[in-house]
């Protein structure tokens, strides 16, 4: 949860870039963390549920119109994310990775795990993902997402 991440960042005095002391950068992180619940998380999870979990539970493929609708909802928030949060910066809060970037990419990996490559036609988003992975470490990133990336094989 967001509350736990913020608690850990404060308790263990993590490097400043994770949850910046600079008020403008921190406000950017807080803004994203507040926005993402019903947007990136909400729409990404909905696509994952529709495309992976519901067919697993019902034994039926999702209705095409339902899948199209949830995909369009996700595409709208991805556009907002690029325009409002990434803009022309490498990371959400500026030139360094923060908890906002980490949370964002983790949430976006659910639709990817469902087989929807949302980075394919979005070069800005793909470059941001590459930078986040690089900052975290590619091996750690892959280990952390191994389960979700194999979910479509259930």
From TrEMBL:
It comes from Anhinga rufa. The keyword Acyltransferase does not apply. This is glutathione transferase. One of its GO terms (cellular component) is cytoplasm. The gene is Gstt1_1. It is found in: Cytoplasm. It comes from the Eukaryota. Keywords: Cytoplasm, Transferase. InterPro entries: Glutathione-S-Trfase_C-like (IPR010987), Glutathione-S-Trfase_C_sf (IPR036282), GST_C (IPR004046), GST_C_Theta (IPR040077), GST_Theta (IPR051369). It catalyses: RX + glutathione = an S-substituted glutathione + a halide anion + H(+). One of its GO terms (biological process) is glutathione metabolic process.
């Amino acid at each position: 949860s967001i509350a736990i991440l913020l608690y850990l960042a404060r308790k263990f005095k993590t490097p400043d870039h994770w949850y910046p002391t600079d008020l403008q950068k921190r406000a950017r992180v807080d803004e994203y963390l507040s926005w993402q619940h019903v947007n990136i998380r909400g729409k990404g999870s909905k696509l994952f549920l529709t495309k992976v979990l519901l067919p697993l539970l019902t034994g039926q493929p999702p209705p095409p119109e339902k899948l199209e609708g949830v995909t369009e909802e996700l595409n709208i928030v991805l556009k907002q994310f690029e325009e409002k949060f990434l803009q022309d910066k490498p990371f959400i809060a500026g030139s360094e990775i923060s908890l906002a970037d980490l949370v964002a990419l983790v949430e976006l990996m659910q639709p990817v795990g469902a087989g929807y490559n949302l980075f394919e036609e979005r070069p800005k988003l793909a470059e941001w993902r590459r930078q986040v992975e690089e900052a975290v470490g590619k091996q750690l990133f892959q280990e952390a997402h191994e389960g979700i990336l194999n979910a479509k094989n259930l």
